[in-house]
Design goal:
The protein has about 450 residues and is α+β, with helices and mostly antiparallel strands. It has 16 helices and 16 strands. A hairpin with a 5-residue loop joins strand 15 and strand 16. About 35% of the residues are buried. It binds adenosine monophosphate.
């Protein structure tokens, strides 16, 4: 019923149920449709398999955390905390934030569950949504997905190298050529000394700095090194380099990481201006970039480093740690650009088709019997016409279609159609499953022989 306006006798117009267009996505977020899900699951499977062998265990932290976790952990003067957090006060008065990144929450979980008592290092991997209120543009969303590896409880440079190597390996398995940019930003003391030198240097260039850079100069001159402004690049290139200000322990640590990466044949480039935008990093920092300079991808696919001070900063005991986070949407965009398709993990061999009500009923059962017997099977039972069902079977590239019609129902048979040559045979309904299995096994053997033959040929 229309509502009455208090001030007049005129009924207030009920807000018209708007057309579909009024229910659109919130700015900067995306539906992950089946086409992209295929990529997501493909990447997920690679990550899960790799982490399993390297002893990284899955962890899932909540999407909401206390706001202070990120203010403390990520750092008050970082872009994330200053302008990108989705924060709110809930009904109970708690200050909460939708997580913008994964590491701080993993460190919180490590402390909260007393994992210091476990054999160290404790190694995790995660996969999940992150939210940042950024300006939406290509490769930059407000809700996106990351996977990450975190190893807490070891300061061995081998851990840094392992995390970098695993990240590289995932990219390689996906068919992507990447380069890893690495740097060391040393300890807090090294950085304090370096910041002074950097401040002095940028002061001499003050007139050439942009307004943003001038602000960063006051807050944290390291951030200027991260700038993407073209005009600043020559000044940044000439800036003093942090490597010259590393203490011997940091320097030794970094050289060992580089040595291990060399041993593992990971393509790394030293990037003295790489500092990363989050405050918890120390010593090793790195970013993953596509090696293809012609790509439209202008941003890193992932990044990480050591965060030896984070656990203590959040109230735990001193615990050295290292990790990485990789953006899934950016990976998918690059895979698509390179026309790399996810390997299908479900290629059906058999299609069940039917004609008529009774046949439809029986087909539902036949489909389930085949599926339970381990046969990869597909259907389109809601379709009526045989032609459209067979078209679907063709599209799915199945080897055989099983067709049930009125006649077959009466005879207790099924029509078996070889989709490659169109030859049809009648088989006994009771023997369908063993017959199908026999034929599929035979095909597998023929394929294996063919592959073997090809291998022998290429050996000769
Ligand atoms: P960060 O923790 O900011 O270094 O992010 C690690 C990775 O997450 C980046 O290299 C991106 O691949 C991805 N990422 C970060 N922010 C966004 C965003 N706003 N939209 C999409 N991907 C992002």
């Amino acid at each position: 019923m229309p509502k009455k306006n208090n001030n007049s006798k005129e009924p207030v117009k009920e807000e018209k149920v708007k057309t579909n267009s009024s229910f659109q996505l919130v700015r900067g977020v995306k539906d992950v449709l089946p086409e992209d899900q295929a990529y997501f699951f493909w990447i997920f499977d690679q990550v899960r398999e790799l982490t399993r062998s390297y002893g990284y265990e899955p962890i899932e932290t909540p999407i909401i955390e206390k706001t202070n976790l990120f203010v403390r952990g990520v750092g008050k003067q970082t872009d994330i905390v200053e302008k990108e957090m989705f924060s709110f006060v809930d009904q109970g008065g708690d200050h909460l934030t939708l997580r913008p990144e994964g590491t701080a929450a993993v460190a919180r979980a490590y402390i909260e569950h007393g994992m210091l008592a476990l054999p160290q290092p404790v190694k995790f991997w995660y996969w999940g949504k992150m939210l940042r209120h950024e300006r939406p543009q290509a490769g930059r969303l407000r809700e996106f997905h990351q996977f990450g590896f975190e190893a807490l409880g070891s300061d061995d440079p081998m851990i840094d190298a392992q995390i970098i190597f695993m990240t590289y390996k995932i990219m390689q398995q996906l068919g992507l050529e990447v380069t890893i940019a690495v740097n060391s930003i040393g300890s807090e003391e090294c950085r304090a000394q370096y910041k002074k030198v950097l401040l002095d240097y940028f002061r001499t260039k003050r007139s050439e700095l942009s307004d943003v850079a001038k602000k960063q100069l006051i807050k944290n001159p390291l951030r200027i090194l991260d700038s993407k402004e073209d005009d600043l690049l020559p000044i940044i290139e000439q800036a003093p380099q942090i490597f010259d200000y590393l203490n011997s322990a940091s320097r030794e640590h970094f050289l060992k990481v580089m040595d291990y990466l060399d041993e593992l044949d990971v393509p790394v480039i030293l990037k003295p201006t790489l500092v990363r935008g989050l405050d918890y990093y120390n010593r090793t920092v790195f970013e993953v970039w596509t090696s293809d300079e012609k790509t439209s991808q202008q941003s890193a696919l992932g990044g990480g480093g050591r965060y030896d001070g984070l656990v203590e900063l959040l109230g735990g005991r001193p615990t050295p740690a290292a990790g990485v986070a990789v953006g899934i949407e950016r990976l998918v965009a690059l895979l698509k650009e390179k026309e790399i398709k996810p390997t299908l993990d479900y290629q059906p061999d058999i299609f069940v088709a039917q004609l008529g009500e009774e046949a439809k009923r029986k087909s539902m059962l036949l489909f389930e019997q085949l599926r339970s017997a381990g046969v990869k099977v597909a259907e389109s039972l809601s379709k009526e016409g045989l032609k459209s069902q067979l078209e679907k079977a063709d599209k799915l590239n199945v080897k055989y279609a099983l067709i049930l019609g009125q006649k077959e129902i009466l005879d207790g048979t099924v029509m078996l159609r070889d989709m490659e040559n169109g030859i049809q045979e009648v088989i006994d309904q009771k023997k369908v499953i063993p017959e199908i299995k026999k034929r599929l096994d035979k095909q597998l053997k023929i394929q294996a022989e063919l592959v073997k033959g090809e291998e022998i040929k290429s050996d000769i």
